[in-house]
Amino acid sequence: MRPDPDLDLVERVEGRTRLLVPAASLGGGPPPKSPAFFNPLAAVTRDFAVLFYGARYRGSRARLLDALCGVGARGIRVANESGADILVHLNDANPTAAGIARRNCDLNGLGDRCTVSSEDANALMYGSPRSGPRFDAIDVDPFGSPVPFVDAAVSTVRPGGIVALTATDLSALTGRSRTSGRRKYFLSLHPTDFSREVAARALAAYGVIRAAAAERGARPVFAHVDSQYLRVYLEIRGHARAADESLDRLGHLGYCPRCLYRGVMDPGRGHRCPVCGGELLELGPLWLGDLFDGQQLRGMLAMSDGMGWAARSKLLGRALADAGLPPYYYALDRIADSLGTCVPRLDRLLESLASKGYRAVRSWAHELGVKTDAPHQLFMEEVRRLSSCRGAASPAPPRRARCSGACSPSASPRGPPRTISSPSPGSRPARRPGTP
Ligand SMILES: C[S@@+](CC[C@H](N)C(=O)[O-])C[C@H]1O[C@@H](n2cnc3c(N)ncnc32)[C@H](O)[C@@H]1O
Ligand SMILES: [Zn+2]
């Protein structure tokens, strides 16, 4: 890395791309916004962007708008590494960031494939000509919530194009901050153990609703999430009928804090839990269809394997296995904790559910997440049966059950919810959430 005397920039290689970035952004703490923003930890989200746009546009020419580009890391990596014929327009309201992005284009010999501007992203999107060439894809990667930019992106991208939305305001999208979820996204949410998938489905639903207001359809084709960020890639279609079809895929999940049941809300059945009769909390509106497009995933997986990106391939493989499964998972650490037992070995649990005729796979959203179409009570019973902790049969679950050795090594029961088991045969009586 060599220092830059003017802006204290240093050179860094991410993927196969050289980037000048502010030295202060590599200090380990939260990256500063001035002189320009660059988050080294977001490299994983940029790897997926390279794979996504590369797989999507291989064999055709496309125009991508990186509408809030910072120093240009995402768009420049796509132009440089995706292997597709993608022309990238980079834009950032901060002129210093846009200036660094321009230098980064030159540094990678991309002067003829990238253009740069410094404008407000909404002004740029609404100002782009409707009659001339439109953007095939618009990438929205703001600080916090993408809400201020969603309307412009979904209404100005070319029909058939992609709008990728990043959100880092995960407290609003997971139910941790219910008021902010309601204010920003008009969501009704509650914290659950499967909140990462809820967040992805909530952001997808928001995109669908805003696209529908512009008489456009939208469906998610890819998503990824971790504890800090969420990204959803939406494919936008151009008619009012497509909008209606997309809206038909929205709905609510019901979640029972008493027995931890989760399922798609059936409006005809009211708010009673079908397992324990407790009150169901409603989560939504959420996108309830598939979050991934199989062809898109297979293209990304082939690229990722070719690049030797094993960790990305692992996640893509899990996403492929997600097709057709219910729109939620069970986070085993939280489930085991609430049962007062320890986490069973994941491979044994999946095998056991499969042997009983159910689909069961690992979640793409959570390291200890299990997705299955097994009925709730049966799933909970299997978790209990396959856990071999001393606390498993105790009526008062300890905070940390002791493992006799057959449990998952990564198991670490933690935190709330302090909830209860399902009232299935042989289980303990239900307790109210919050009781010790
Ligand atoms: C999270 S950073 C983008 C990071 C970048 N995409 C990357 O991968 O490195 C958000 C950027 O949005 C820019 N920004 C904020 N408001 C904007 C607006 N209204 N129009 C355009 N850019 C804006 C900020 O200057 C900042 O560089
Ligand atoms: Zn219940």
Word description of this protein:
The protein is of the alpha/beta class and 436 residues long. It folds into two domains: 9-294, Vaccinia Virus protein VP39 (Rossmann fold, 3-Layer(aba) Sandwich), CATH 3.40.50.150; 330-436, Phenylalanyl-tRNA Synthetase, Chain B, domain 1. Helices cover 34% and strands 19% of the residues. It contains 14 helices and 15 strands. It has a seven-stranded mixed β-sheet with strand order 5-4-3-6-7-9-8, sandwiched between helices. A hairpin with a 6-residue loop joins β14 and β15. α1 (43-57) crosses α10, α4 (121-127) runs parallel beside α5 and α8 runs antiparallel to α9. The longest helix is centred in the middle third of the chain and has 19 residues, at 195-213. The radius of gyration is 23 Å and the shape is globular. The N and C termini lie far apart (54 Å). The relative contact order is 0.09. S-adenosylmethionine (SAM) is lined by residues 37-38, 42, 46, 68-70, 73-74, 92-94, 97, 120-121, 141-143.
